[in-house]
Specification:
301 residues, alpha/beta, Rossmann fold, 11-stranded mixed sheet, two-stranded parallel ribbon, signal, AB_hydrolase_fold
């Protein structure tokens, strides 16, 4: 059913996973210590990146070895997008039951079946266009995911054309708060419980303005019934973390704005807790978003 890639040898190609209407490629990483009914994390790369480059930069497969996590890496093709961006703003690639979201859903179903994954512990994360596609997946298939993490991304359906997408990336315009909420509710017939949301953004991101991080939080606040200021604010590895807890005291939304960081995924490559390696859009800032996201989801315990 699948065969090894010859790139870095870390990831394995997933050859067959359904009709693949979005014409995507797919790779997996299943660590040797993966337990039956273990969790799955879907990892979506950014523009100009590949599944392999995002994995080596973020350190997800290293953490998978450490914690027994299965990984799925959807990968964009240049034939779909010349800079290998996921097409998060296109109508056919932003709705349930079509295009790239359906391809990713089919991959998830295949991997869950192949590796006896706990379907209640499936998570999705992505950076930049991958972050925007993560918001698409969380909105269109919320029943599939226990949580999602959006790094340098944009809210679901904040743009419907390439021109609008470029304007939204600059931080201008976009749906009202009530529209943001309605867009998620109208994307499926799901009524909850909703995936938890982790939002990460560079404070000096000139590619995707961090106003988008605030908009993502607002999009999910009404859904989780946690409107208003954060329940608490704290410092993690020297950076501010805002947390919104629901009526039961459960953390349902968190937000990190990494001061001084440009466009990319925050990593900490060195030290005992280090993961990944510095590279294009993989930014050494002294905090590992990969480790903290996995911790937020309860995968590192």
């Amino acid at each position: 059913m699948s065969k090894s890639t010859d790139s870095h040898g870390r990831l394995t190609i997933l050859d067959e996973f359904g009709t693949d209407p979005g014409s995507l490629q797919s790779y997996t990483y299943i660590p040797k210590n993966f337990p039956k009914n273990g969790p799955l994390v879907v990892v979506l790369h950014g523009s100009t990146q590949s599944a392999e480059s995002y994995d080596s930069g973020s350190g997800w497969s290293a953490l998978a070895d450490e914690c027994g996590i299965a990984l799925l890496f959807p990968e964009q093709r240049e034939t779909n997008n010349s800079i290998k961006s996921f097409n998060w703003f296109k109508f056919g690639d932003s709705h349930r039951g079509s295009g790239e979201p359906l391809s990713i859903r089919q991959m998830i179903r295949q991997v869950v079946d192949d590796h006896a994954i706990d379907p209640s512990r499936v998570f999705v994360t992505g950076m930049s266009s991958g972050g925007a596609m993560a918001t698409v997946m969380l909105a269109t298939y919320p029943e599939v995911f226990a949580g999602g993490a959006i790094i340098a991304g944009l809210p679901y359906r904040s743009a419907v054309t390439l021109m609008e997408a470029l304007v939204r990336m600059r931080g201008y315009g976009g749906p009202s708060d009530s529209e943001l909420d309605a867009l998620v509710r109208e994307a499926s017939t799901f009524e909850g419980p909703w995936p938890t949301i982790s939002v990460w953004h560079g404070g000096s991101d000139l590619t995707v303005d961090n106003a988008n991080a605030d908009a993502i939080v607002r999009q999910w606040q009404k859904i989780h019934e946690v409107e208003g200021p954060p329940t608490r604010e704290e410092e993690v590895d020297g950076f501010p973390r805002q947390v919104w807890c629901n009526a039961d005291g459960r953390e349902v939304i968190e937000k990190f704005i990494i001061g001084g960081m440009a466009h990319g995924t925050p990593i900490m490559a060195g030290g005992d807790e280090g993961l990944g390696e510095e590279g294009k859009f993989m930014l050494e800032v002294g905090i590992s978003s990969t480790r903290h996201i996995a911790n937020f989801w309860g995968l590192t315990r």
